[in-house]
Each structure stands twice: as structure tokens, then as C-alpha cells.
Amino acid sequence: MKFGYFDPKNKEYVITNPKTPTSWVNYLGTADYCLIISNNASGYSFYKSPKLGRVTRFRFNSIPMDRPGRYVYIKDEKTKDFWSISWQPVAKSLESFKSICRHGLGYSIFESSYDSITSSLKIFVPIDKPIEIWEVRVKNESNEVKELSLFTYTEFCLWNSMLDMMDFQYILYTCRMGYNHEDEIIDYSIKLWSPYEPKAFFTCTNKKIESFDTDRDVFIGAYNDESRPEAIVQGKCFGSIAIGGNPCAATQVKFSLLPGQEEYIVFILGIGDAYKEGKEYKKLFADKENIQKEFEKVQNYWAERLSKLSCSTPNENMNLMINIWNQYQCHTTFNWSRSASFIEAGGRDGLGFRDSCQDILGVVHSIPQEVRKRLIELLKAQLSEGYAMHHFQPLTWTQGEHNIPPRDRIYSDDHLWLLISVPHYIKETGDFSILDEVVEYADEGSATVFEHLKAALEFSWNHRGKHGLLLGLAADWNDCINLRNGGESTWSTQLYFKALTEFIELCEYLGKTEDAEKYKQYRDEIRKALEEYTWDGEWFVRGYLASGKKLGSKESEQTKIFLNSQSWSVFSGAFVDEKGKTAMDSVKKYLATEHGCVKNWPAYVDYIIEVGAVTSFPPGLKENAAIFCHANTWVIIAEAILGRGEYAFEYYMSFLPANKNDIAEIYTAEPYVYSQFITGKEHPYYFGRARNPWLTGTATWAFTAATQYILGVRPHYKGLIIDPCIPSGWDGFEFERVFRGRKLSIKVSNPDHISKGVKKISVNGKEIVGNLIPVEMLDEENVVEVVMGK
Known about the structure:
- InterPro entries: 6-hairpin_glycosidase_sf, 6hp_glycosidase-like_sf, Gal_mutarotase_sf_dom, GH65_N, GH94_catalytic, GH94_Enzymes, GH94N_ChBP, Glyco_hydro_65_C.
- Residues 301-712 form the Glycosyl hydrolase 94 catalytic domain.
- With 790 residues, the protein is of the alpha+beta class.
- It folds into four domains: 4-304, Beta-galactosidase, Chain A, domain 5 (Distorted Sandwich), CATH 2.70.98; 352-533, Glycosyltransferase (Alpha/alpha barrel); 543-701, Glycosyltransferase (Alpha/alpha barrel), CATH 1.50.10.10; 713-788, Maltose phosphorylase, domain 3.
- It contains 19 helices and 42 strands.
- It has a ten-stranded antiparallel β-sheet, with helices on one face. Strands 6, 7, 8, 13, 17 and 18 form a six-stranded antiparallel β-sheet that branches. Strands 20-37-38-42-39-40 form a six-stranded mixed β-sheet.
- Strand 37 and strand 38 form a beta hairpin.
- The radius of gyration is 28 Å and the shape is globular.
């Protein structure tokens, strides 16, 4: 069942049925101010921090769902009938009410038609101003004059989102609402023991405000809700001023419309004092041209970011995701990490270390300067011993004054992601200078970035178990597996193998022979331990529990095989051989489904305290045999490395969101962005249902898997590698790429219909040897012709 469609020309997803299975949202905002808005205009905004800078409220996991939000109501003064431009919250019958939502890049538009009135609401956030702009258009399509009132409503959060949800005895007595009568601006302020205490305001820029309310309970009325506010029923706001209580911004504007006439009205909600910034913004955006200029800046912002890479393949859904929505999601995860969505309530503020290290992979080609800054922030969260803080807040950064994690909260993988992210940044940009930059550690002291990387490698080397594998410590990437007290992680060891390989390659390029030889010895020992202790006959075990029992083995109780230790056996480079192929064959045999590969099989049924929290989930959910989309991306990469293009593409398509558009009633989540997981085959009811969309490492790794391993265009220290691994049925594809300031137009042809292998590459008419295009031979614009063949 479809609820909408892709509009590639306008880079929009158009929702035609507002009764989507879940809230289908969009992220607006690019810097300090972020607004998350659903297809029914619900959602919330925050300023800098979703935890300490929450501007407006949203009630998570509530009934009715999708409340509250940014609502614009229209009331016919003659008939007394009223509705909202977005279908919710009034929710008129869809037989008479026509509704469309257009989620675009940096904006959302709501369009409706009811009782001969057409209307639209466009909301966007300027790229460099902490405000949101609501553009409203109302047109009379009837043959008679319409006397109308327009009401707006949004509910303020009392700034600290956690207190706002939990500490009512305190928080409900802190707001100080006011009204700038001269300029007709609602004034919102609150005093908390918080580093963020700015004011906020709400106003109409181009029409007289007829009436207003700042007290939610007065505007809504006792035992009412947003679908039937008392003020709208009565036809006028009450002029309430909330001093304590639940603050809101509600206004009324009145106007008449002749037949065929349209009214244009603008509202702004923003950060600042109603008597200063509010007044200045109201004056600025009373001019329609200034609003249009701000919107054009938003459009140009996203056009610039998406212009650095695009493709044209035989598969339209792949093109849609790579060219538009996957990149858009990558930038969203880079901006907001895992802190704020309709699933993440904003309490875990700041940056997850492993998350942010991975998130840069999807945007470094587009915004290298921002990535460099983020890398320095991450390096500051590494401790001098080499491990990293699992989570930190760069907005309040001071060396030595953080909550340094205790020894039992050190993760075995966090610090190793630096060995993936920093080399990838250098390969993309050619900026080797970052290695010499001196960066302080979180606890004490400082070192060059190169020494930071060595410290990460040394920490892992010094924290190995009795089998020579890395200790799991607090956890590895799968936080729900208990590997404490001497448990060992195959997967972290495979990540370590990959990290060593990356560092050795870097050292060899830099001519640091002594370092390269040292870490080659480390890598040889790690390879030996993996060979001796992790091969289980058909696949690799997931690790060893503290008791010495194998995890993910034929000998194990319940779950026998895990996904990550198979894909990373190949991706790490440790087993690009028959064992790697056999392990990936076992993935196909035991883990693959039409919606992607489950994380483990069979699912845990009984709770096992020694194995950990993974066994607490019902079969098919989250870490217990769900289709963890993040982990599925590594399956694609592994198959591409093995040269099995049919499998790589099959796995890519199996969980591609755009492929779920026609079965949205099963998939339920947005079909334009990746979700964290899809319910697995052992769940009794909801196989194929997606959960936790938007803020997931799936975004950056799906983009990497598709562009660098299926399409095979990936950066190297010396230039650009062209190494496709595609379905043999493809005739070829085209790829546009900006690399170190040079533009490449790449055309790949596949006359022999193979999956992998490059026979010939010419750059601007000059044939090269091999499949690495040296950066020094590139002009400002380049035409690259690639012929696949054996």
C-alpha cells in the first residue's frame, strides 16, 4: 500500500495519505537551530542542545500519536466550522478534506483543500538564523465572500527537556510569558540552572494579531485537546499570560477573501528577546523578498552539498537514494548524531564517539572542513591511555573536567574507529597536515594526531584476552552482548585488524618504515589468533564469554551464528579467501531474508545472564535476530570485496527504503530514509516492520557501501580507485564526483557483463595502467571512461 511517492525533480517525498503507519518526519535546520516535523505538522525544535535547549514540546509515545506540533487552524466565521491546514490535529474526514505533505530538503509544505478553501503552510529554518518561518497561503475557491480567522498554536517546552518531562513539581513554576503589545510579539522566557537560557518569541510579521494566548490550559480549555481548542470554538483567544504553568504561542488573525482571492500571512518563531531580536526579525521578514532570499539560501545550501556526488544506474530507486535521500540523511546524522528524533527524546545529548567517527564517512566528500573540525573534537575525547569516552558533549568542553569513564565503562571499539575515520579523511582530502596537529587528550596532556592513532592501537594491543583476541571490556559494537570480566570479541579483533592495516598503509605512504614494521608484527599475531581461535567450521564465532564458552558457535546454546563476525572477516582483510567465502555463504544460508540479513540465528528465546541484554529482547527485535540495517551494509561490502556483485546488490536492495514504498503498511517507517532495524523473521507478527529511522549509522555505511564498493569509486592517498562490483546484467553506469576540487565525469561500460574487473581506464583520452587514477593527472574537469572486463 502506498502513502506517497518520490518527486525526484523537486527532490521531495510527497505524502498523499496523512494516515501514515508512523510519523514520517523531516529535519529542518543546518546549524544551531533544528526543527523535527512530521507529515502532520507535529514535532519539536531545539537550540544547540536537544537536552538543554528544547524550544517546543513533543509528547513521545503518546495517545493520540503525533502531538503536539506547529498548527495553523482556519475558521469560517459564518459557518463556525474550523479545520487545520495539516490534517492533524483537527482530523477532518478525508472524504471531504484533501491533504498533501511535501518533505523537501530543508523544508516541509502542507497543502489542504476543504469547503472551497485551499491553503498551504511552508515551514523552513534559515541556514544562519535561530528562527523558523511559517509561510501561510489561503485562497477562496468559492463564489462567495469568506470571512475567516487564522489561529496558530505551538507549545513551548520549558527548556530542559528532561525536567520538562519528569519534574513537574518544579518545572511548571518557572515560565515567564509576556506580550510586547506595541509590536504584537509573544515573549517567552525561563530561568533555570542551565548553561542555555535564551528567550524565545513568536509573532506575525505582516498582519495585525487580533488576539493571543500564552497559557496552554486557557487556549485549549479544560478536558479539551489540540483538535478542539476552546479559543477557536469561542472564536477569540483570551489574552492569557502564563506566569508558571504550560506556556504556548497562540495567535489569531482575521481577514476576508473575495472569490478567487488569496491571502499571504507569515509567522516566525525564534530565539531572542521579543523586544529586541523579535522586533528586528519581524521588521526584516515583513518584506516578502527577504523571506524568499532566505529560502533560496536553504535551497542553495542543499544543492551545494548534494552536487559533489551523483550517479545514474539502471536502478531508479538506487539513484533516488544515492543522489538525494541517502546524502540528506548522512548530513542529518552528522549534524545531530543520535540525540534527537521521534525515538531519541534528546536526553542523551552530544556525540557518541563511535557513531560520530562513522558518520563522517558519508559527508567528508562534501564538507571536508566541517569533518576536520569534528575529527579534532573526537580526538579531544580520547584519553592519554588510548581509549575514548563513549559519549561526550563538545559544547561544554574543558580538558580534565569531564566525567571520565570508570574502568568498567571502557568500550573495546570506540577508539579504533579513529583508525577508520582519520585515514579516510586524508584519502579524500589529501590533507596530511592533520597528522601533525597537536590535540589535547580528555584527561591530561596532548599529542599529535599521528600519536593519538598510535595510542589507540597500543591500548587495544595491551587489552587482549587469553586467546589473543581483544577483550570485549564494557562492550563492543553490539552493546547488548556481555563480554565483561575477560570475555573476548572476535568482531573488535577484526576491527583491530582493519585498523592496523589502515595505519600500516598510512605509515608506508609517509615513509615511516619503523612504525609500519612494528604494526605488521601486531597484525600477524592478530591474524594468527583469529585463525586459531575463531573459525568454527562454517563460520567465525562471535567471541568468548567470561566463562570461556564460545559465543555464536555450533557449540553455543540458542544462537549459533552472528552476522558481524562473518562480514568483517572479509571487510577487515583478514580472510579474503576460502574461509571468508564460506563464512559469507553461511550468511546466505542462515541469515539472509527478503528484507535483509538478521543479526543472529536462531534468536535467543530464554534470558541468559552470561550472554547479556541481547537475550532480553523477544525474537526478531533489536539486537536479538532483527535485521540490523547498519550491520547489513558490511555484508554488501564483504560481498563486493569477494567480487560477488549479484549478492552485493541483492543485499543492498533487500533493505533499501525506496524499495519499501509499495509495502509501506508492512515497512511502516519512512520509505525515504534508513532505519536502525527491521523486525526479523522469527518475530511472530511483524516481520519486515522498520523501527528507529533517521539517526543511524546505517545512513553513512549504506552510502559508503553503494558508492565505494558496488559502484566502486573510492579515494586513496594517491588518487581515486575505480573498482566496481555490480550485477552482471548491467550494461554499465555513470558517476559524477568532485575529488580534491576536481570534477570527474565517469562512464563505466560492461560489455562482457561481468560483476567485477576493470580492463581499461582512460582519463581525458589518456589510458592509465591499473585502476587507480593519480590525482596529479587530473584537470579541473575530467572525462573518465572505464571498461569492465577480465
